Amino acid sequence: TMPKEPAVLRQNILDTTAAILACGIDPRKCLLFQQSLVPEHAELAWILGCLTNVPCLLRLPQWKMKRASQNSEGTVGLLTYPVLQAADILLYKSTHVPVGEDQVLHLELAQDTAQHFNKKYGEFFPVPKAILSEL
After folding, report:
1. Considering only 28-32, 84-88, 118-122, 131-135, which range has the smallest mean pLDDT?
2. Domain boundaries, position 118
């Protein structure tokens, strides 16, 4: 949600891809792609954003913490990031999502969004369940 120099962003994408492959992810067994090249992520985020109320987003603790670190000048991107996360999950009709404790509320937003969408437009999105890792 913070502006980055294009060259740095491109390098970060390459570095992240290298780290994923170094962890043992086998590209012959899974699909790796650059999310920013798939316009449907942003398109679904827009649609879901039109179904999400602002007070719900303002209550999320991540918004409060990051906004405080940005001198009370949180950006729209920061506010709506959980909606983009919900779109990322729902776009692929995910049924289970691995999350850390700090992301449970964001997954709950995805669950609520799926239920709201399904109630309004008919059953379309599965309601994803959290897979919490134990450390």
Report:
1. 131-135
2. 38-132
| pLDDT tens profile 89-99 | 999 999 999 99
Domain total in the chain? 2
Torsion, Cα 22 28 29 32, to 10 degrees, reads: 60
Query: What predicted TM-score, i.e. pTM, was given to this entire model?
Result: 0.85
What's 51's domain CATH number? 3.40.50.620
Question: In three state form, how does the secondary structure of 98-119 look?
Answer: EECHHHHHHHHHHHHHHHHHHH
Residues 6+ apart with CB under 8 A from 79: 54, 57, 58, 63
